[in-house]
């Protein structure tokens, strides 16, 4: 997966093409954060990180805007992304990050207080159950995951997608989506309890508590 989203991490115009022909523009400005994002985007970002008052890992951190926001508040935070470009951009912002596969060994495994899966990253690897189980394993018992889901009615689906710019097309890889109406079921099947959900500026967030008994 190295480099698949790299053009988007530097602000280029990018689209996701699915195997069925659908083409969707990526919100690259939102991902980069800073002065580029709207008031609505800031509202969502505040909700994503607002409860995080202890060590937090951002999985698939991309260019690191959420890690930077946490560090500015004095919260211990770490970005994780498989892309060296993402890690370089995040570190350039003054935020710590490591270039790792999130399914492999990671610093603080089993001890994080909070974990973030924002910007559709529940789709990483094409299996929402697998990634949520991994997140649960990264958290301490009773830790909290803040997860962005797709809109109600999306279902749980896996598609082959690729990134396209105005002049280039990447390789195909699996990506998943999960509607917010499946948050409770997915939580219960992966070691979490669903605490609450929210629709904020048209985006859908869920707060999942890892089982304190594990």
UniProtKB/TrEMBL annotation:
Q: Name one GO molecular function term.
A: methyltransferase activity
Read off the InterPro entries from this record: Methyltransf_25, SAM-dependent_MTases_sf
The Methyltransferase domain covers 57-143
Per the UniProt entry, what species is this protein from, by scientific name?
Answer: Nocardia jinanensis
The cross-references to Pfam families, in alphabetical order and at most eight, read: Methyltransf_25
**What is one process in the GO biological process aspect for this record?**
methylation
**Protein name, as recorded:** Methyltransferase type 12
- Coiled-coil portions: none
Keywords on this record? Methyltransferase, Transferase
């Amino acid at each position: 997966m190295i480099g698949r989203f790299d053009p988007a991490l530097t602000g280029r115009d990018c689209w996701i093409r699915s195997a069925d022909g659908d083409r969707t523009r990526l919100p690259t400005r939102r991902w980069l954060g800073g002065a580029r994002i709207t008031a609505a985007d800031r509202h969502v970002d505040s909700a994503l990180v607002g409860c995080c008052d202890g060590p937090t890992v951002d999985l698939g951190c991309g260019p690191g805007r959420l890690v930077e926001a946490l560090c500015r508040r004095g919260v211990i935070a770490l970005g994780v992304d498989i892309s060296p470009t993402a890690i370089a951009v995040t570190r350039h912002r003054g935020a710590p990050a490591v270039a790792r596969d999130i399914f492999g060994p990671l610093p603080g495994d089993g001890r994080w207080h909070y974990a973030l899966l924002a910007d559709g990253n529940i789709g990483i690897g094409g299996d929402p159950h697998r990634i949520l189980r991994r997140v649960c394993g990264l958290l301490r018992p009773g830790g909290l995951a803040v997860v962005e889901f797709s809109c109600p009615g999306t279902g749980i689906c896996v598609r082959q997608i690729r990134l396209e710019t105005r002049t280039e097309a990447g390789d195909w890889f699996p990506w998943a989506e999960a509607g917010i109406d499946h948050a409770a079921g997915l939580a219960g099947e992966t070691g979490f309890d669903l605490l609450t959900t929210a629709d904020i500026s048209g985006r859908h967030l869920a707060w999942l508590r890892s089982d304190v008994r594990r």
